[in-house]
Design a protein that fits this description.
The chain is of the alpha/beta class. It has 22 helices and 17 strands. Strand 9, helix 8 and strand 10 form a beta-alpha-beta unit.
Length: 661
């Protein structure tokens, strides 16, 4: 696995609490002060301020003498001037006199004011015990006595506890104020998380589908494991590595794998954590982060979503963000201010390299750009094998077939696919995950969940012919992707779907293929015109996608006869507000008119081709629509039985190939 040979060892830092110097004071956490103060406050309130309820009858001294002479008292306990005792039976005290069980309650006494109990308490006036004791002996009352104990604890608590609470509060406030003066801008410290290289980590074995990127990063790992080898020959370590790729392709995972393979500290932070509402905080956090990384060198600083702070300065309309620009400036200074022997590499990830400031991308800062693209078929198969570890798969599951049916899926998409299939199997109380679970999960991810749309028979028939039109044009158009499923079951926001699955990953698209793709998009509208001589709103998304694709064919890829092989830039999406307005237009109005005419011609021609094909295959259109009305979903095998085998595409002698970005 990891080899630490040749790498200069760093001094071990003593963990907190171990090897502490004798003169080093242990700091008591603030929460402990608050806990002690709260406990003392609650105890003080309970002991001295909270009213203590008692069920005994509180008798005057004269009433005690009368009750003793009447033979109602059984025993007493004398402690100083306090006397407690017990009646021979349960008595009632009205506030002025004692009543036995048979005595009537005076009319002027409220029942709620009467206290009933067998016990009582009273206080003997000074110098009256000589009168009380003979009376008790004459009436055969059992007398007990206890020596009065003088305790200073209550008085001490009453006098000292409030003072202690106040002093403790003052001390705590003083500590906080002192700490705040020492670090007024404490929020300027970096919030980066440090992953200990001694803990379990991610290695390149946990990353699949990105073999090219892994090979590129292997050299970075060797830099970090053996920096002395490169210093001796005078080579300079790369200061920055930029991972570029679509979302979910594993850029963060690759950065962790680099740290895991090299066995060095790994500081992870999101670029958005640098920016705050206070100007200068982001720059302070950048400085603190690099100071921590230099102290732990060799190491890696990983900045996720770099475009949050690294966007071009003053791009588009409106003013710039001073705080973000100051943070970016500090990042530029730190990256270009390393000493020659500082073995710290900055790894950043972004899915929008086009918006980054050019100063970030120059050599000396981000020296290398590693493209982390979408995995190909073999890569998707390897990713599926990693994510299906520990998941019981049925014998019907073919990962090769699943990988072939998921072109354009990223690693995150494949992980979600496996998880959705496992959830589906669990809902159906299965012990293993079957092929049907994967197919349902794939449909759920691509199309959305099945919803119960209340459609009448007329709407169902329109949707059936609409989807059948897509399927017929796709099946009989040479060069188009093969069909996988046609359904009129509502999913997500669609009332029906027609799914095509490419047989292989495509990276270049020919004009012939793109025209067939537009014709397939227009097949639904064409079927409505042929069958009902009417159009509906169901083709909204088809029209949008077809028009957008035609606009890119004309303006980006030069695939129209009207414009020719010229780049117009139409179809690009500008990420900055106002950039399109501030840029000079490099074409005339006449050229734009010709481009619009070319877009219209491509879409209308594709529409007419779809109408001609469906008119010729009207019987197939009716048969497939009728089967959809009966079954709601038709798979590829059933489509082949109904329509026959698709035609073999003729070889195009002069194929125009373009790079689809």
């Amino acid at each position: 696995m990891m080899d630490s040979g040749g790498r200069s060892k760093q001094p071990q830092r003593t963990p907190p609490g171990k090897g502490q110097k004798p003169n080093q004071r242990m700091r008591i956490p603030s929460w402990m002060f608050w806990l002690i103060l709260a406990a003392l406050s609650v105890g003080y309130i309970y002991m001295f301020l909270w009213p203590q309820e008692s069920s005994r009858i509180d008798l005057p001294y004269s009433a005690l003498l009368d009750a003793t002479e009447n033979g109602l008292v059984q025993s007493v306990e004398i402690e100083g001037q306090d006397v407690t005792g017990e009646f021979r039976e349960e008595l009632r005290w009205t506030g002025t006199e004692l009543l036995e069980q048979g005595d009537a309650v005076p009319s002027d006494v409220n029942e709620a004011d009467i206290v009933t109990d067998t016990e009582f308490s009273t206080t003997v006036p000074p110098n009256s015990s000589e009168q009380l004791l003979p009376t008790l002996r004459e009436n055969n009352v059992t007398v007990g006595a206890q020596e009065e104990q003088q305790s200073i604890l209550p008085s001490l608590l009453i006098s000292v506890l409030p003072l202690a609470l106040i002093l403790g509060l003052i001390v705590l406030m003083g500590r906080n104020m002192s700490r705040g003066q020492q670090n007024v801008f404490g929020f300027g410290r970096s919030r980066a998380k440090l992953y200990d290289p001694e803990r379990p980590h991610v290695t390149f074995a946990d990353v699949a589908g990105e073999e090219e990127a892994k090979r590129e990063l292997t050299e970075v790992v060797d830099f970090l494991k053996n920096p002395a080898k490169y210093h001796q020959i005078g080579a300079r370590l790369p200061r920055g590595v930029l991972l570029v790729g679509p979302p979910g392709t594993g850029k963060t995972l690759l950065a962790k794998a680099v740290a895991g393979e090299a066995g060095v500290p790994f500081f992870s932070v999101s670029a958005s954590e640098f920016v705050e509402m206070f100007v200068g905080v982001g720059a302070s956090r950048v400085r603190d982060l690099f100071e921590r990384a230099k102290a732990a060198a060799p190491g890696i600083i990983f900045v996720d979503e770099l475009d949050a702070v690294g966007r071009q300065r003053f791009a588009g309309l409106g003013g710039s963000n001073d705080e973000r620009e100051q943070t970016l400036n500090q990042l530029l200074v730190e990256m270009d201010g390393f000493d020659g022997n500082q073995d710290v590499i900055v790894v950043a990830a972004t899915n929008r390299p086009d918006v980054l400031d050019p100063a970030l991308l120059r050599p000396g800062r981000f020296d290398r750009q590693v493209v982390v693209g979408l995995p190909h078929k073999r890569g998707r198969e390897a990713i599926l094998k990693i994510h299906t570890r520990g998941i019981p798969l049925d014998s019907s599951v073919d990962l090769v077939s699943i990988a072939g049916g998921t072109p354009g899926f990223s690693g995150a998409d494949l992980a979600n696919l496996v998880n959705e299939a496992a959830l589906t199997a669990a809902r159906r109380n299965r012990k293993t995950v079957t092929r049907a679970d994967f197919e349902e999960a794939l449909d759920k991810i691509i199309l959305g969940t099945v919803r119960s749309a209340l459609m009448n028979e007329r709407d169902r028939l329109i949707v059936a012919y609409h989807e059948a039109g897509h399927a017929i044009v796709a099946h009989f158009s040479p060069g188009s992707d093969p069909l996988r499923k046609v359904s009129i079951v509502p999913r997500g926001r669609a009332l029906g779907v027609t799914i095509q699955t490419p047989t292989e990953d495509r990276y270049n698209y020919s004009r012939h293929y793109l025209l067939a793709r537009i014709a397939v998009m227009m097949g639904g509208r064409a079927a409505e015109i042929i069958t009902f001589n009417e159009v509906t709103t169901g083709a909204q998304n088809d029209l949008k996608e077809a028009t957008d694709l035609a606009r890119r064919m004309v303006g980006l890829w030069g695939m129209s006869d009207e414009i020719g092989p010229l780049y117009l830039g139409t179809g690009e999406q500008h990420v900055f507000l106002g950039r399109e307005l501030t840029q000079d237009r490099d074409m005339s109005d006449e050229t734009l008119d010709r481009a619009d005419a070319a877009i219209r011609r491509i879409v209308t021609t594709a529409m007419q081709d779809a109408i001609n094909l469906l008119t010729e295959r009207r019987s197939d259109l009716d048969a497939l629509a009728q089967r959809l009305m009966e079954e709601e979903t038709v798979d590829d095998d059933e489509i082949t039985r109904l329509l026959g085998a698709p035609p073999v595409p003729a070889e195009v002698a002069a194929m125009e190939v373009t790079d689809l970005e």
